[in-house]
Amino acid sequence: MEFFVTHQAVDHYSGDCSVAFASKDKSNDNRIIQTYLDLHRFEPKLASTLMLGKVEGYKSKRVLVVGLGESPLTKKNFIKVLKSLSSAMSSSKVKNVVIPLIEVEDANEAWIQASTARVLKNESYKVNKVGVKEEPSDIVLEAVNLYSKNNGANEIQKGVAIANGMALTRELGDLPPNICTPTYIADAAQSLAKNYDLECEILEESEMESLGMNSLLSVSRGSSQPAKLISLKYSNNGNAAPIVLVGKGVTFDSGGISLKPGSGMDEMKYDMCGAASVLGSMRAIAEMNLKVNLVVVVPAVENMPAHNASRPGDVVKSMSGQTIEILNTDAEGRLILCDALTYCEKYKPKTVIDIATLTGAVIIALGKHHSGVMSNDQSLVDALKVSGESAQDTVWQLPLDEEYDDLLKSNFADMANIGGREAGTVTAACFLARYTKKYSWAHIDIAGTAWLGGSKKGATGRPVPLLTQYIMDQV
Ligand code: BES
Ligand code: MN
Ligand code: ZN
Known about the structure:
Distance between the termini: 28 Å
CATH topology of the largest domain: Aminopeptidase
Number of helices: 14
Mean pLDDT: 97
CATH class of the largest domain: Alpha Beta
Largest sheet: 9 strands, mixed
Structural class: alpha/beta
Helix content: 25-40%
Shape: elongated
Number of strands: 20
CATH architecture of the largest domain: 3-Layer(aba) Sandwich
Radius of gyration: 24 Å
Bound molecules: ligand BES, ligand 2, zinc ion
C-alpha cells in the first residue's frame, strides 16, 4: 500500500474510487450525492458506509459515502471512520482511492494525514499463517491518494513508519510460542540492528549470572530455551541522555510451578508483547530518522514448570542486591523486569519506561480500552497522557502510594513477589518501583490492550503509537 498527496479536487480523480464524507447535521453540500443518500435512505451515522457505482460529476468508477455522524468529529470518531472506510474498500476490492480532507476537532492537517496513513496501513495487516501458502491476491488496495492543501508527504511517512512498527509488533506477538522463543526475539533484534544501523548487544545466561541477575534467571530455569537480555541502541542526538524502553519478553507464560488453569492458556504466547512493542517502536523511530537517543532493553525468557524450575518459597537475590521471596512463580514478569531495570542504570537514562503484560488485574480495572500507567514522576505521566491522546492509544493512571508497597512485606526476604488479591496492578508496580529509584520511570501495564481474544484473536500493535508519539513529542 502506497500513499500519495494530491492537490486535485477529488471529483476529478479518475481511478477506482472517490470517498465522499457525509454528516448528519449538515445536509450534504453536494446535491448529487444527497440525491443518492435520499434514494438509498442512507443515514450518515458515524462510520456507516454506502458504496455507489458511477456518480454524475465524479470521474472515478465508484463513490464510497462514509457517514460522520454528528459534528464536530472527534479524533476518536475519526479513527472509527477510517477503520470502516478501510473495511468497505477491501470488501469491494478497490485498488486505488482518493480521500478528501475533513475537519477533525482539535487536530491539524498534519495529524489527519499521519493518522490516516497509520490507520489504513495498520488495517491492512494480515496474519501469516504458519506453513499456509495463501494465494497472493491481485485485488488489494495499492494506492491511497490523500487530498492536501499542503505538502503532507512528510506526515504520511511518519504514519507509515508507525504502522510498520506496529506490524513488527503484531507479527512477533501472533507467532506461536514454539517459534517465537527468546532466541527468536534476539534474532529479530539483530536483524533490526542490521537494517537500521543500530548497536545490538545480546547477553547470554552466563553473562547475566556474572552480573548477578538471579531473579531474571530464576524464571527461565525450568525452560529448555535459554534466556536472552537484548539491548538495541539508536544514537541520533549526540551525547544527550537516552530514553530507555524496557519490554517484558516472556515468550510463553505457563505460570511455572504455580501453573495457570488450562482454558485460554494459549494466549500466554502474547506475554512478550511488551518486548514486541519496544522493538516495533524502535523500528518506527529509526525509520523516521528522528533526532533522539533511544535504547530498548528486552529481558526474554520462557516460564515453564520443570524439576529444576523455581518453586514457591524460593528466595533469590536480584542484581540490585535486594532479595525476593518468590511466593508465586506466575508473578514472573516483575522478576525479570527488576533485573532489566537495574541494568538500565548503565545508560544514565533521561527516562525509563517499561511496558509489560504484567497483571490480569489491569483488565479487571480498565478493560481493553486504556493501558494502565504508574510512575514515580508525575510530569512523565502527564506527558504520556498527552501523547496517548494524540496517538489515540491512551493510558489511565493508577496510584502508587506507599500504603500499597506495605503489601509486599516478607518474613524471609526484602520483599515478596506478590501482594495478595487487592490492587494487583498497583502492587506489581510497587515491586518495580523498588528498582527504579535512581531515575524518572513509568510502568505501562498492557495486559488488556496488547491483544484481543475471541474471534478477533490477534495482537493489536499497541502501545507502539503511544510510545512513538511520546518520543516524537520529546524532540
Ligand atoms: N502474564 C501474566 C498477566 C496476564 C494474565 C496478562 C492474564 C494477561 C492476561 C502475569 O505474568 C501473571 O501471571 N500475573 C499474575 C500475577 C499474580 C500471580 C500476582 C496475575 O495477574 O494473575
Ligand atoms: Mn505469570
Ligand atoms: Zn506473565
